[in-house]
Amino acid sequence: MQIIQYLINGISIGAVYAIIALGYTMVYGIAKMLNFAHGDVIMVGAYISFCVTNYLGLPSAVSVVAAVVVCTVLGITIEGLAYKPLRGTPGLAVLITAIGVSYFLQNAAQLIWSSSPKNFTSIVTMDPISLMDGQLVITGEVLLTVCVSVAVMVGLTFFTSKTRTGKAMRAVSEDRDAAQLMGINVNRTISTTFAIGSALAAIAGVLLCSTVPTLMPTTGSMPGIRAFTAAVFGGIGSIPGAMLGGVLLGIIETFSKAYLSTQFSDAIVFSVLIIILLVKPAGLLGKQVQEKV
Amino acid sequence: MLKIDDIHVYYGAIHAIKGVSFEVGEGEIVALIGANGAGKSTILKTISGLMHPRSGSITFCGQDISHTDAYKLLRTGLAHVPEGRRIFLQMTVQENLEMGAYINREVSQKDLETVFDYFPRLKERRKQIAGTLSGGEQQMLAMSRALMSHPKLMMLDEPSMGLAPILVDQIFAIIKELHKAGTTILLVEQNARKALQIADRAYVLETGKITLDGTGKELASSDAVRKAYLGG
């Protein structure tokens, strides 16, 4: 029974990774950049939610909305100020800028909220469900996280395959110049992508801290890196890939903590990644497109 | 309709276009011929706003477009079918056409029918992923995609590239039809013979400069052009 409990916990944390990974993958697919500050946007989202609940005393639903709004604006601002001026320059410049933005956000958070951890109150008030005489416990957080991540994936898939803006995003992702020749405003499309990615980061932040309640300025960085790994694992640029990668990563992490070693769990996770990439360089669901000349 | 006035274009430090001027009048087919690397595609990219001239001006329908962003130009009636087709390979034929009609917001059934009349083969393949089409079909899709926006001027960059002779004939026949239907054409081609056959006027481009111009017939019979581009 224990193994099923671990599996449930793994899926739950994996679902959080999946939501973060979806943000990574969307931005990578469309803006062709790795936004290493993505993990720190998660942390900002969690802090906003924390402040709205604890300092303003507003209900948690309001705090989630506030976190989403602030992170969306933050995402668009970061993109406009830091990344957009570098468009057309070698990818390395943007990558290093993203790392810089990541440190900036962490230090700004430390300045505003100090480095001492805050105890995040879960947004879920539901009592855990006990199954099999209490051998199996499913918390409200687990249910919420899994439902939200599935909803996000379905929503994004629908958005990119059915809506005009979503299709324009795919066009930009495939061929930026050709998309411009169709009358698509590439800059605006990239901003929209950042807005969506950052809104997802806010949601991920609240869910993450509802599950693991310690909130500090570095809270987002490790989950951010794990989620990035998940995105690569599943095939970066692919929406179902990010989902699959996230969940698998969560399961592998939980199992290695439970059965192998708590300290080495990250090492194990990354070893699995290396092995997968050696065998399938494009990731599990990544597409290797052959172009016709 | 389109007037290029002494444009200079650079790729970083490389001076690619060295003072090119030419005009395309309404209802004309104008061809730009020249060897590989002469700067033909660069000129088209500069007209469509993917690149910008360092000096000189480009006017389209009386409006200076030298520094207009590429995505705004389709709305002025200027469409560019780029070199190598550049269709969206991972999207379906239908979705590619929808992207062609992006500026109209809605895809009108009538426009789709018009396009399918020109290229019936695409109708059968509308649900197919564009990357699985043959080279000729991809060229047809690239042209159809541009047609969806009802352009006044259509710029075609090497439409015959990599196609079997029979397909080249087909593509050129369609260019003529489009022209008859009222679209002005600016054609860039390495296949000079074909281009000069249908062009009202043509310009010869050599290493970033225009060295000759005249009617299609004049150029086709000029010794210099015959030696350099038509194989003697």
What's the assembly state of these chains?
heterodimer
Structural class of chain A: mainly alpha
Q: What is the rounded Rg of chain B?
A: 17 Å
- What is the number of strand segments of chain B? 10
Q: Largest interface, counted with CB-CB under 8 A? A: A-B, 23 and 33 residues
Helix content of chain A: over 70%
Strand content of chain A: under 5%
| Contiguous uncertain segments of 5+ residues of chain A | 289-293
Largest sheet of chain A, described in full? 2 strands, antiparallel
Give short descriptive properties of this protein.
heterodimer; A: about 290 residues; mainly alpha; ABC transporter involved in vitamin B12 uptake, BtuC; two-stranded antiparallel ribbon; disordered C terminus; B: about 230 residues; alpha/beta; Rossmann fold; 2 domains; six-stranded mixed beta sheet; 10 helices; about 25% strand
Report what the structure shows.
The complex is a heterodimer of chains A (293) and B (232). Chain A is mainly alpha-helical and 293 residues long. Chain A has a single domain (2-117, 140-279), classed as ABC transporter involved in vitamin B12 uptake, BtuC, CATH 1.10.3470. Chain A contains eleven helices and four strands. In chain A, strand 2 and strand 3 (136-138) form a beta hairpin. Chain A is globular, with a radius of gyration of 19 Å. The N and C termini of chain A lie far apart (56 Å). Chain B has 232 residues and is an alpha/beta fold. Chain B has two domains: 1-77 and 153-232, 3-Layer(aba) Sandwich (Rossmann fold); 83-150, no CATH class. Helix content of chain B is 36%, strand content 27%. Chain B contains ten helices and ten strands. In chain B, strands 6-7-8-3-9-10 form a six-stranded mixed β-sheet, sandwiched between helices. The two termini of chain B are 34 Å apart. The chains are: A mainly alpha (293), B alpha/beta (232). Chains A and B meet through helix 6 and helix 7 of A and helix 2, helix 3 and helix 6 of B.
